[in-house]
Specification:
The chain is 63% helix and 4% strand. By secondary structure, it is mostly helical. The protein has three domains: 11-105, Fumarase/aspartase (N-terminal domain) (Fumarase C, Chain B, domain 1, Orthogonal Bundle), CATH 1.10.275.10; 110-148 and 171-351 and 448-469, Fumarase C, Chain A, domain 2, CATH 1.20.200.10; 367-425, Fumarase/aspartase (C-terminal domain) (Ribonucleotide Reductase Protein R1, domain 1, Orthogonal Bundle). The mean pLDDT is 96. The protein binds arginine. Arginine (ARG) binds next to α6.
């Protein structure tokens, strides 16, 4: 097939090379951005008198009919035409004649591909922000639904101190709220208009970049043409955001997998969110959580891959940069799917209150509170720690819990113990005593829930901004 750039070549491209260099297999998903960007460019060329207004109208109509064809499934992308940009441009000229050749005036594929990718990522950020917002809402709903349930809090995966299950859920809310804020930063880096940079140096035509930016709803323009066509930071920022978000989802996945094991039995996932085994009839596996944990590795891979691709590139465009898109697309798909399935899994999850609360009453997670009791009666904390440690060691030998000790036994460890020690080491007392700002008490849970609801409301305002500004 004749190339749009064939002028200086004496022979056609080797078929193997054609296949190797082509990106249309994956960049065709940016067809809408490509055509919308071209329409804005053609309109600007007409308005600036670079081409006739009538020519601009013909080009725009031609582009609109190509868009309609693609959406109706009546367009076949050709590998020989390399990428989405040249597939669309070639079809335009086939359809409207030589005037189609004027579309590429004052533009290069280097600034065109950058434009399309910026626009595509803006749309993806909008979708991801909505799904991330909904997952945070699912965490808040879960915290509210099981507001009073207590569980052991862990350090080193050893029972540490009793906490509210809601407190645990709200910790994940806070992590995801930070992800949402990070995504706002990614948006700012993505909401920049590169078109008009030309191949690298700008253009000799009297173009109006600001008009194109306004039509395409970009907030800012690149100040430097070399930077405009070479920048892939916004994709790297997106992949970094995605890696951190996946790391968070992977951590909660690890807990969900543990909690749904027979050893913990803290939660039960809905049958609809699990799969069985082809050989073991009893199995109910937490595949969603496992797969999200697994897919985290793949997203990290895309970040490392693009960091590596870009590290040695001289300015400006190099073909290496075509490697930026597949990892970005795969990350977008992975995030959207993971966030969606996760929210529905959390909403279907049942918490086993009895098992969780047995775990906090039949263990030593109240030992800190035993020490704190003595501190409140005037003993220095280090001595109180020693006394409680001795009591725990005694209980282990006697096969008892601290709560099984009689007052006389308590007093044998220290004379400051009085009858109120029994209440002081009840799990509920331990939880509610942690009234410090951000602690696990039910008063703190209420405050955290109020803040979380406010955060969700602020996010909604931002979601509207994204929706208005994405194509
Ligand atoms: N398919 C190319 C890419 O994705 C478009 C830009 C090509 N530019 C060039 N000078 N070969 O990077």
């Amino acid at each position: 097939m004749a190339k749009l750039w064939g002028g200086r070549f004496a022979k056609g491209t080797d078929v193997l090379v054609e296949e190797f260099t082509s990106s249309v297999g994956f960049d065709q998903r940016m067809y809408r951005e490509d055509i919308t960007g071209s329409i804005a460019h053609a309109r600007m060329l007409g308005q600036c008198g670079i081409i006739d207004k009538a020519e601009a109208d013909t080009i725009i109509k031609g582009l609109e009919s190509i868009l309609a064809d693609i959406e109706a499934g009546k367009f076949s992308f050709e590998v020989a035409l390399e990428d989405v940009h040249m597939n669309v441009e070639k079809r335009l000229t086939d359809r409207i004649g030589a005037v189609g050749g004027k579309l590429h005036t004052g533009r290069s594929r280097n600034d065109q591909v950058a434009l399309d990718t910026h626009m595509y990522l803006k749309g993806a950020i909008r979708d991801i922000a909505e799904l991330l917002h909904d997952l945070q809402l699912a965490l808040v709903e879960t915290a509210e639904k099981y507001g009073d349930v207590m569980m052991p809090g862990y350090t080193h995966l050893q029972r540490a101190q009793p906490i509210l299950f809601a407190h645990h859920m709200l910790a994940y809310f806070s992590m995801l709220a930070r992800d949402f804020r990070r995504l706002e930063g990614v948006w700012q880096g993505t909401d920049m208009m590169p078109l008009g940079a030309g191949a690298l140096a700008g253009t000799t035509y009297p173009i109006d970049r600001h008009q194109v930016a306004r039509e395409l709803k970009f907030d800012a323009l690149y100040e430097n043409s070399l930077d405009a066509v070479s920048d892939r930071d916004y994709i790297l920022e997106f992949l970094s955001f995605a890696s951190i978000l996946m790391m968070h989802l992977s951590r909660i996945s690890e807990e969900i997998i543990l909690w749904s094991s027979a050893e913990f039995a803290f939660i039960e996932l809905d049958d609809g969110h699990c799969t069985g085994s082809s050989i073991m009839p009893q199995k109910k596996n937490p595949d969603v959580a496992e797969l999200v944990r697994g897919k985290t590795g793949r997203v990290y891979g895309h970040l490392m891959s693009l960091l590596t691709v870009t590290k040695g590139l001289p300015l400006a465009y190099n073909k290496d940069m075509q490697e930026d898109k597949e990892g970005m697309f795969d990350t977008i798909d992975t995030l959207k799917f993971s966030l969606k399935v996760y929210a529905s899994m959390l909403r279907g999850m049942k918490v086993n209150k009895q098992v969780m609360e047995r775990a906090v009453s039949q263990d030593f997670s109240n030992a800190t509170d035993m020490a704190d009791y003595l501190v409140k009666k005037g003993l220095p904390f280090r001595q109180a720690h020693e006394v409680a440690g001795k009591a725990v060691a005694h209980c282990i030998i006697e096969k008892k819990w601290l709560m099984d000790l009689s007052l006389a036994e308590f007093q044998s460890f220290h004379p400051l113990f009085e009858a109120d020690i029994m209440n002081a080491i009840q799990p509920e007392t331990c939880v509610n005593a942690r009234k410090s700002y951000g602690g696990t008490s039910s008063a703190s849970r209420e405050r955290q829930l109020t803040v979380a609801r406010e955060t969700l409301e602020e996010q909604e305002a931002l979601l509207d901004v994204y929706t208005e500004s994405a194509i």
